[in-house]
Amino acid sequence: MERESSYKTRKVISIGTVSELTGLSERQIRYYEERKLIFPERSERGSRKYSFSDVETLIDIANKREEGVRTEEIRSELKRKKKKDDQASRSKMIQGQLNAQFGIRKK
């Protein structure tokens, strides 16, 4: 599972490739960045780099926009999802630490 996570979150995809994968224009992708819906990294030369997770998020954003959902609503939903995911990760980590402390093994 960790390997899946690492390849999905590594920011290595150029904006041109993301545009081809999503069907969005580069301008639309930059707009969603301006609206704080996605957060690409910058290479040493300043070009944007995206992850597979970003591509999935952009496709989800595009679908919601086609349904008429405003960017503010999408941003709020993304924040709620991130908070929920963070809490789940934290719970998993704590459970793992407890299991290790008390010698409990998963079967």
TrEMBL record:
Protein name: Transcriptional regulator
Protein's organism: Cytobacillus firmus (Bacillus firmus)
SMART domains: HTH_MERR
Region (Disordered): 70-107
GO MF: DNA binding; DNA-binding transcription factor activity
Claim: DNA-binding is one of the keywords in the record: yes
Biased composition (Polar residues): 90-100
Organism ancestry: Bacteria, Bacillati, Bacillota, Bacilli, Bacillales
Domain HTH merR-type: 12-80
PROSITE patterns: HTH_MERR_2
Alphabetical UniProt keywords: DNA-binding, Repressor, Transcription, Transcription regulation
